[in-house]
Design brief:
There is one protein chain. This protein is mainly alpha-helical. The protein has 2 domains: 8-188 and 300-329, Rossmann fold (3-Layer(aba) Sandwich); 207-294, Tyrosyl-Transfer RNA Synthetase (Orthogonal Bundle), CATH 1.10.240. The protein is built from 13 helices and 5 strands. The strands form 2 sheets. It has a 3-stranded parallel sheet. The chain has a two-stranded parallel ribbon with strand order 4-5. Strand 1, helix 1 (21-32) and strand 2 (39-44) form a beta-alpha-beta unit. The protein is globular and about 75 Å long. The mean pLDDT is 94. Bound molecules: tryptophanyl-5'AMP (TYM). Tryptophanyl-5'AMP (TYM) binds next to strand 1, helix 1 and helix 7. Tryptophanyl-5'AMP binds next to strand 1, helix 1 and helix 7.
Length: 335
């Protein structure tokens, strides 16, 4: 892992609410496949999580829970750096500098910003929500990452990050690598079981559309059995069958079987039989994750140690990039 020749991967998830199947197939599973071949930094971005109304004690709890779930999902801390965003000095500092280069209009046009401002119940929209993608760009650029693996919903944000890297380089001279976005082939957009036109999301009003990684088997089965399907009865992947297509994608991601193989396997089956098989496949994926999670989640000293070690490695790399950035933008060095 200390091999400095390795390409650098950086990606993060927010500790708001619980991690779900979308986070697993769109993110964690894909991240775990990279830890042997790259130098990987995986963050838990608590500073992002305060851009929407939240409860501080729940944020603290979710930060530890996410770390335990990262490890339980295969992110071996011996092979990658797991860190908490607020432990690293530099993310918000770099965000300030990048924000000075970022046109407001570009932030106002971000799909997720428009979506969230329309849904925010309280009517209060903090400027943190608008500036969110700039902080995300800083998360990536502060490690001079080569590649950023994300689900499809984060693609636009990584594109903004690329724009800002280019703009910084053009303004102040070559400094940042322009990171490549990496989207997995399966599971890049797991959809809500209740509204397959929307992505599966922890902020979804209807929580029965969202399978959490810590849901017990009976709840997983109940949620999948009540998933919205379509009229007709064929188990087929098609544009006019978003519910069944979503279940096929989930089963494909869970089993490694292709969609075509699954269509053949369930040709002539009732939706009920198919849904039970999807539930079995998901439960099989979740069981070992939940068992490992139970083993480590109570050991706060262990989790704190992982955060400490992750912060050590992350801070070291961040300092290197930040001293370069400060020099380029004309700040007087601190002596
Ligand atoms: P977040 O916390 O919403 O999601 C974490 C990761 O899970 C992916 N994901 C999904 N993939 C497939 N189907 C879904 N339904 C689904 N829902 C979520 C996301 O694409 C993401 O990869 N802004 C980011 C966190 C972030 C970040 C970063 C990511 C902050 N700084 C720097 C990469 C690099 C977010 O809110 O992800």
């Amino acid at each position: 892992m200390s091999n400095t020749d390795h390409k650098v991967i950086l990606t993060c998830a927010q500790p708001s609410g619980q991690l779900h199947l979308g986070n697993y197939f769109g993110a964690l599973l894909n991240w775990a496949s990279m830890i042997d071949d790259y130098e990987c930094f995986f963050g838990i971005v608590d500073q992002h999580a305060i851009t929407a109304p939240y409860v501080p004690a729940e944020l603290r709890q979710a930060t530890y829970r996410n770390l335990a779930l990262y490890i339980a999902s295969g992110l071996d801390p011996e092979k990658c750096h797991l860190f908490c965003q607020s432990h690293i000095v530099g993310h918000t500092e770099l965000a300030w500098i990048l924000g000075c280069l970022c046109p407001i209009g570009q932030l106002e046009r971000m799909t997720q910003y428009k979506d969230k401002t329309q849904r925010q119940d309280s009517g209060f929209i903090g400027s943190g929500l608008l500036n969110y993608p700039v902080l995300m760009a800083a998360d990536i650029l502060i490690y001079n990452a080569d590649r950023v693996p994300v689900g499809e919903d984060q693609k636009q944000h990584v594109e903004l990050c690329r724009d800002l890297a280019i703009k910084f380089n053009n303004t102040y001279s070559e400094t940042f690598k322009v990171p490549e976005v990496y989207i997995p082939k399966t599971g890049a957009r797991v959809r809500s079981l209740q509204d397959p036109n929307r992505k599966m999301s922890k902020s979804d009003a209807n929580q029965s559309g969202c399978v959490y990684l810590l849901d017990p088997p009976n709840i997983v089965r109940k949620k999948i059995r009540s998933a919205v399907t379509d009229s007709g009865s064929a188990v087929r992947f098609a544009q006019d069958k978003p519910g069944v297509s979503n279940l096929l994608s989930i089963m494909s991601a869970s089993t490694g079987k292709s969609i075509e193989d699954l269509e053949n396997e369930f040709a002539g089956s009732q939706y009920g039989t198919f849904k039970d098989a999807v539930a079995d496949a998901v439960i099989t994926v979740l069981e070992p994750i939940q068992a490992k999670y139970e083993e480590i989640q109570k050991d706060k000293a262990y989790l704190d140690r992982i955060f400490r070690e992750g912060a050590g490695a992350a801070q070291k790399r961040a300092n290197k990039i930040m001293s370069k950035v400060y020099r380029k933008v004309g700040f007087v060095p601190r002596t």
